[in-house]
UniProtKB/TrEMBL annotation:
Protein species of origin: marine metagenome
Name assigned to this protein: ATP-grasp domain-containing protein
InterPro entries from the UniProt entry: ATP-grasp (IPR011761), ATP-grasp_succ-CoA_synth-type (IPR013650), ATP_grasp_subdomain_1 (IPR013815), Succ-CoA_synthase_bsu_CS (IPR017866), SUCC_ACL_C (IPR005811), Succ_CoA_ligase-like_bsu (IPR005809), Succinyl-CoA_synth-like (IPR016102)
Domain ATP-grasp: 9-227
Entries under Gene3D superfamilies matching the protein: ATP-grasp fold, A domain, ATP-grasp fold, B domain, Succinyl-CoA synthetase domains
Gene Ontology process terms (BP): succinyl-CoA metabolic process; tricarboxylic acid cycle
Nucleotidyltransferase among keywords: no
Amino acid sequence: VNIHEHQAKDILREFEAPVPKGVVVYSIKEIDQKIKILNTNNFVIKAQIHAGGRGKAGGIKLVKTNEDLIKEATSMLGKTLITKQTGPRGKIVKRLYIEEVSKIKKEFYLSCLVDRASAKIAFISSTEGGVDIEKVAKDNPEKIITTKIDLTDEVNETNVEKIIKIFQLDQRQKIQAKKLINSIFRLLIKKDANLIEVNPLIITKDDNLLCLDAKISFDDNALYRHPDITSLKDPNEEEPIETEARKHELSYIKLNGTIGCMVNGAGLAMATLDIIKLYGAEPANFLDVGGGASKKKVSAAFKII
C-alpha cells in the first residue's frame, strides 16, 4: 500500500521526525481558512499523486502571495500530471498539499527498508538528495552508503555513525540525525512498512535537519494489524482492475504488455511471464486464481482479463 506525501509526513510527525508545517486541501474554497495555521506568505504547492517526478510535470509550485497561491492551486487541482512513473495516461490531481517554504542549505537522501535478501533492515544514505536515487546508483555509486542492521530496539551509535558519515554533519546535527534515524526505524517496525524514503532530507539555513519530502509504502499482508493505515488508501490512485480483482480474492497485477495470463499458482504464473518475455513479447498482467478456484472465481478472472 502506498500513501500520499501529506499522509507520510503526518505519520513521520507522529513518530517525532522533523517535517515542515503544511495543510492538505481538496477544493479551492478550503484554502483561505486552512492556511491560517501556516506562519508564512511563502508557500509551496504540491500535487498529491502516487508518482515521482511531479516537479518536472508542473506539480510543484512556489508562490509568494495568497493571490498567486489561489491562482496556481486553481490551475493544478484537476490537472492531469504525466510523469515517468504515471505512464502516458497520467494521473488526475484531486488533492493539494500546501506547505511552508523551507530555506535549503544542503540536500541529502535517506531511506530505510526491509532487505529480504539479508533478512536485515537497510538504511541507504547519499549526499545526492532531491534526485532519482536509481540514477545516482548508476552514475555515481560511490555517493551511496548502505548500512544493514539487525532487528533490535533501536539503532545504536555505531550504526548511526555509519549511516550519516557521508553527510559530514556537525555535532548538533548528529544528535538530530540519531533521533531521526531511530524515529524512522521505529516507524518501519511498528507500522509494518516496506519502505520509508526521505528525499530530500535537508539542512535548513538555520542548520537543522528537516524531512522535505517523504514516501512510505506498507506491507499489504500486515494491513489487518493496521486499520489506521488501511483507511489512508486512496481509491483514485489505485488501478481499477486491481481493485476489482481484490473483491474476488484474485492476485492480479496490471502490466504493460498485450498477452493476457491466467494461471493457477503464483510460481507457475511467474514462470509463464518469464517464458513470454524470453520469446520477445510482453505480458499484459499477472493473475493467479489459486488452487481449487470455483467457476465463479474463474469467470471473474476471465472478465478482468
